[in-house]
Amino acid sequence: MRGIARARWLTVLGVLGVLVAAALPAVAQEAEDDPPVWTEADKDGFGTAVGADSKVWFTLDDGRLTEVYHPRLDRPSVRDLQLVVTDGETFAERESEATDQTIELVDERALLYRQVNTARNGRYRITKTYTTDPRRDVLLIDVGFESLDGGRYEVYAVHDPQLANTGRDDTARTRGRALVSTDGSQDLAAALVAHPGFRRTANGIDGDTDGWTDLRDDFELTDRRSAGPGDVVQTGLLRFAGKHGRMQHATLALGFDDSVNGAVRQARRSLHTGFRRVAKSYARGWHRWLDELGPRPDSVARWPVHYDVSLMVLKASEDKTYPGASVASPSMPWAWGQLTIHDPSGPYHLVWSRDLYGVATAMLAAGDRESAEHALDFLFETQQQPDGAFPQNSEVDGTPFWTSLQLDEVAFPLILAWQLGRDDPETVREHVEPAADFIVANGPATEQERWEEESGYSPSTIAAEIAGLICAADLARRVGDDDKAALYERTADEWQSQIEEWLFTTTGTLGDGEYYLRINDDTDPDDGAELELNNGAGIFDERDVVDAGFLELVRLGVKPADDPAIVGSLPEVDRELRVETPNGPVWYRYSHDGYGETNDGQPWDLEVPGTIGRLWPILTGERGEYELAAGGEAQEHLDTIARTASDGYMMAEQVWDRPDPEPEGFEFGEGTKSATPLGWTHAQFIRLAWSIDAGAPVETPSVVACRYARKC
Prior knowledge:
Beta-galactosidase, Chain A, domain 5, 9-stranded antiparallel β-sheet, 8-stranded antiparallel β-sheet, 19 helices, 19% strand
């Protein structure tokens, strides 16, 4: 998703010496000198309460709680929390490694998840249900434990805090029966409290004196009242309510605050309220929110839960301190999961104008105009730069992170402003016109296109620029700025008339030799210039590299669906990029893509040769939108995206692309270890669903289509 930007960032980090061997799984980092890493990116579940009173988000994977975010969605403060089971004499094992795991949605209209972990040796079963308290910064976990063989076992909760997005400066101690931790550089504290209270507790340093290492070595927990500063780990022996031989229960509360007293108080208040009452309140919040959106589109009759979860994932991906700031994904894929825990934690926790546009248009189609308005407010009031441009990405508070120029990201807010009818003079003159002026002055060639890896003339970028300028012209004319409107229209018309001249080769090396290029370094698409692809993919004749970015010309109304150059480019794209998976047709991003796992399933890493970009469900949705614009059907495309979702209804950035090889943990047509859930994928699913019902892409701005693609 973020090729060249990631490559640059990895190069910097490599110089700093913080790369960890890509082959080492996160759960195996136990030695004292091994740096801590974030957990894998393919999350099974993701949740938070509706509303801004509870600024806690959780993720789930491999039968355990993984990253917990607080107080912002770009600030993970927990690495993981899982259970260790021992008989005190012969074995100790972690549930993430020793059990067969399933996940289920307890309530199909709320992000309320339950994990069921059954020991492979047949000794026990663990059932955990997760909720956040809508009124407090607290995560609650209902823990059920059942001995299946009649044996008596001790169950420990092992908590790895990484407060304020760092893992080297925390301190931990036992306070009464609470395990509390504080961050060394910020006013942030966490408290893990149990009901019934912990029977025994310990605090240690990861890989040295932590509870798991202690239990693994001698099956007993050594009492350590405090630890740190450093990468601390906390352990508590659970005390269950109920009779042995039946399902016994305990509740864990993980509270956050700016002080230890506040964190403990928050956790205890949620415990006092009780898991059931809190979970009911949590579920009611999601029910009310979904009800406000109205009925689902007919196209998701087979996929009602996929649709509702997709909506909730998009809502949950919005920060609560900075409304409208939706992160790309609550995960750290591949090499990002193999880096030392650092601040920032990874690029998917940033806000991209392009991704946010996708989220906003999906929410608008689904009836949540308020979320779309918040997104545009964030773009204009928080992220936009003084020169009218938008950064490549930013933190949720608008602070630019990577600063490369992607002109489609400057254009998309203009299209969104038009779709929302934001034609008040202040918005148009202070935000729309500066962005449009920037496009006129700096386009149509872009420093980076939508895959963030190449510079030059890009069909997808130019489509967004032209559409953005026409939308800006209409808004400018509404406030009486006719000269500005004429400038934008004149520029857009000139660029639209030259698209084929710049980007359609007639001497290509693929198919019949006539098709759109992925990108051109100049205005001659037939010169065979060398194109160096990122992610170690190699150097190719630019005519050897295609993608489906030219379909943006149709979706944004710049070209009609039956345009000969558009239709003539589809065979090359399908021959090069389409794969028929067991779940349906899915496409690669572009020829020779290197952003994905190796064939043996090792994570993407700039330093590891042989990584291969896998299939993107987003592109199945975009192809579906094109088919609708061309007068065809797209239900198959929607069904395909739904079938790629995980058991927890999470939709991935990429899915595995072949039946052989299928490394352990990978399945043809199913999600890889890429960013999961990816907001862009969920947004594409929602938008395609509404487009199917409408019989045409709902996002296409009519003011653009009427000028270029159809008679109105």
